[in-house]
Structures are given as C-alpha cells and as structure tokens.
Amino acid sequence: MYELMTFLVLYGLKQNDAILAEDKHIPMYKEMCENYAVDYTAGGACQNTMRVAQWLVEEKNVFALMGCIGKDEFGEILESKAKEAGVLVSYQYHDTMPTGTCAVIITDKGANRSLCAYLSAANCFSRDHLDKPINQSLINDAQYFYITVIFLTVSPPSIMQIAEHACKNNKRFLMNLSAPFLCQFFKEPMMQALPYVDILFGNEQEAAMFSKEQNFGIDSIEDIALRISELPKKNTLVPRIVIITQGDNSVIMATEGKITLYPTVNVPPEEIVDTNGAGDAFVGGFLSRYVQKKPLDVCIKCGIYAATEVIKQSGCTLPEKPTFSL
C-alpha cells in the first residue's frame, strides 16, 4: 500500500483536480477498495446537488433527476439514496454497462480532493430518453433546468434540446462549469450551450481555464466572471448571472455590469473532514431558495451554508435537518 501522495503520482493525479478516467486509471478503483479505508457515498455531481436542494426545501419531489445507470448493485444504491432524499428520479437503465463510479482521494486532512470519474453507464444517456411521455411531462412542468458541463461529454443533443425548450418558454436554464478540463477540451459544445445559460456556476480554477481557452487575456476572477456574464445570450428578457466560488474566499456574483462579493463562513481546520462535494452542495443550497423566488443574496447565503455543512462530513452527506432559516 502506498502513501496517498505516492498513490496520486502513480496514477498521474493532482491533489486538487477533477478528471475523467483513462485506461491507466481503471486498476486504481480495485486497488483503492482492497488496500485503503474506503467510504462509499451515493453521488454524481448533479445528484449531489439535487439531494442537497431537497434536504433544504424539506418537501419531496420538488427536484427531478435524469441520468443513465447500470442494472447493478451500485445503481440500486444510487436510486434508493436519491429517493430517500426525496428526489424524483427518471433514470435510463443500461443493460450491460455498470453504474458509473468516481474515485476521490482526500489529502491534507480534507483540504484537497482529487476526483477521477469513470462514467461507464452515465456515458450512455441518449436523447431519446427525453422523448418518453413521462419525461416529456417532467420537462413541460419544470420551470428550472440545471445541468453540469460534464454532461457535454455524454449527450450534447440532450442539452441543446432542453436549452432550446427553456429559452422558447422563458424558463431558467442553469449550468455548472464542473471541471477545468471541460473548459479546455469540450469548449466547442460548451460555447454552443452557453448562449442559453441564464445562471452559470463555477469555481476559480474553472473560471481561470475558461478565460485562458476563450483568450480573454485577463487573470482577475472578478473580471472573468463579469466578462462571461456579458457574452451573447439568447433569452434577452433576463440578464445572465455568473457565480464563482473561491474556496474559503468570497463568492463572486457578476451580472448587469456589476460585481457583488459574498463572504464565506469560516470553518476551523479541525472541523473540516472532506471538501469533496462542496461545490455541488453550494449549488444545491442556491437552487433550494432560487426555486422559491428568494432574493439572490439569500440564495447565495444558503449555498454557502450548504457547502459549509458538507465539508464537515465525509463525502456529500448531510446532517439530519437543516438549520438555515431564510
């Protein structure tokens, strides 16, 4: 068994990063399970966000989730955990591919996390799943749509179908940059979807990579957020909002030519267990208040609260009851 830092080097992983698994990473999953103390959490970035949002609204089936899973034990766990959290799921099931998994290596006493996602069945979602009557009903009833950019690696046509539906019907379309490499290697489909985005989420590393790949020529995260907010937009009835998190530094919101900073809550280092899932939780907190039409400052404060709670737990898990009251 290797020290964790040696393990990261062995598989070409960075301390604080998120990547898709390549062939060289596949043996890593078995090695981790056999040689290290492993915690299992029902995750997936979007499912994490939906679970957190449901936890905060405390009313079942406010949020629905689509994705593709395998017909296996991990798929059963994912579905049961989502339903237990009150999320309405409408999965596509794959007959042969296993449910996707993500290895998360935690270092520096929870301060850094390296994610390596093996999408597997998640990579097999097809646009025709959206055409099922039950899913058409969900789409027509929904007023808000949220996607993670990692889905651009799976089914861009599905994203564009939802984006166009939202724009045509003046519904809100929200997207998360998800990981720096997506801004780098999937920028073409990303820029096809971006004109439809009403609210864009990301962190400082993702914003910096976006700026580099789009040749903005600027390094300030605040200026990058403002520049993204001003990019062309299909639905001109509402301005684009860009929200960038920066770890324990202030959250940046850029919209209509203005920057607003929201201070985070200080968490003592000894209380931090695992920063994995903090970004997903932030968006879940934001969405829980956004769908209730709360002011943006309340939405962001709820996002900060949710992220603060998650980093005190192992994985994207939550206390029994929320205490946020706005």
Automatic annotation (TrEMBL):
The active site is at D280. Monomer. Binds 3 Mg(2+) ions per subunit. The keyword GTP-binding does not apply. The gene is ADK2. Residues 5-319 form the Carbohydrate kinase PfkB domain. ATP dependent phosphorylation of adenosine and other related nucleoside analogs to monophosphate derivatives. InterPro entries: Adenokinase, Carboh/pur_kinase_PfkB_CS, PfkB_dom, Ribokinase-like. Pathway: Purine metabolism; AMP biosynthesis via salvage pathway; AMP from adenosine: step 1/1. Keywords: ATP-binding, Kinase, Magnesium, Nucleotide-binding, Nucleus, Purine salvage, Transferase. Its main location: nucleus. Pfam families: PfkB (PF00294). Its EC number is 2.7.1.20. It comes from Caerostris extrusa (Bark spider). GO terms for cellular component: cytosol; nucleus. It comes from the Eukaryota. It is found in: Nucleus. Belongs to the carbohydrate kinase PfkB family. GO terms for molecular function: adenosine kinase activity; ATP binding. GO terms for biological process: AMP salvage; purine nucleobase metabolic process; purine ribonucleoside salvage. Its cofactor is Mg(2+). It catalyses: adenosine + ATP = AMP + ADP + H(+). This is Adenosine kinase. The keyword Magnesium applies.
